[in-house]
Amino acid sequence: MTKRMWAAGSLHLDTSHPGYFDLAYGTDPAQKLDIWLPKQTAKTYPTIVFIHGGGFISLDKRESESSPVVIEALHRGYAAVSLNYRMLPKAHYMETTQDIQSAIAFVLAHATEFQLDVTNLIVWGGSAGGYLALMAGLLRPHWVKKVVAWYPITDFPQIDTQLASNQIIQKFLPSRTSDHDKTYVPATPLTESSDFPFHNTANSLDSQFIGESLAHDSLKGILASPINYLTNTIPPMLLQHGSGDEIIPMQQSTTFAFKAQQITQDHRVQCEIIPSAIHGSVLFMTPENYDHVFTWIKPKEH
Q1: Which of 165, 67, 87, 166 has its CA nearest to residue 128?
Q2: Tens digits of per-residue pLDDT, 131-141?
Q3: Closest C-alpha to 227, from 300, 120, 286, 149
Q4: 157 three-class SS
Q5: CA–CA gap between residue 11 and residue 123 (Å, rounded)
Q6: Cis omega before residue 189 (within 30°)?
Q7: What stretches of 37-114 adopt beta strand conformation (E)?
């Protein structure tokens, strides 16, 4: 691919489905969530909180970035919570990460009222949502039992260096099968995959999100990075990333997992690379990968 690409879908969630919708977990209009319930009847349902991506500036809790995982969870007998949060330009990383914590606190406090079993609460997200899911697990490990993060940012200052390194490596590797789908579109801003800097500019979405330019050494970039919040109390985490991701490089996940294993001295943080997959690839949403992720999510029987 000559242009940086990512996936865009058209599937939207329909509120005719059983559930509770536009529940306010804060006073801002953006601080609302939906609770989706399976059609099969039960007193309570195991629960997944899904956080949408969109570069911290776009998309919605019912749009295509959330809907495939929510629908898959419902088919498998889970309740799914999809949520909105304050985004750019109104909010930066501190407010946004706090919104996720407030939404989870709301879910925990009202679980019985909304038929939710939060004994093994899962938080799952992709891209910006993957970043926010990691931060929820890192900052509130006593609330979150497991985290699934697809192609997340884990270390803001390192993203462009890792992308540039991948560009050099790819020049010397054999040609590989490309990842293609009709939903793939050029990423915003429109750039060649070899153009740098991409993230580390004064006006990039990342710089806006952390509230400080990544074009120079950034203290806020360090403070906003999940990799700097790893402790030995974190819950199990599954990170999945595509080797063909030209938006957020796969080293964001691999380096995070390696450091986590050094700190925890175990393998509760796992990283899996999906060959050739681009950012938001349909390869994350195959029946085989869903089976794999939901098997990992399921509590182990003692």
Answers
A1: 87
A2: 999 999 999 99
A3: 149
A4: helix
A5: 21
A6: yes
A7: 45-51, 79-83
Asked if 95 and 86 count as a contact pair (C-beta separation under 8 A), the reply is yes
Q: How far apart are CA 94 and CA 127, in angstroms?
A: 17
pLDDT (tens digit per residue) in 55-97: 999 999 998 777 999 999 999 999 999 999 999 999 999 999 9
Tokens representing 171 are: 């020049």
| Complete domains list, the chain, with CATH | 5-297 (3.40.50.1820)
Cα-based distances in Å from 240 to 87, 227, 280: 24, 16, 11
Beta-sheet strands, E only, within the chain = 5-7, 19-24, 32-36, 45-51, 79-83, 116-126, 146-150, 184-186, 237-242, 269-274
Give the pair of three-digit tokens for residue 152: 């997340």
* Cis peptide preceding 89, ω within 30 of 0: yes
The yes-or-no verdict on residue 152 having pLDDT over 70 is yes
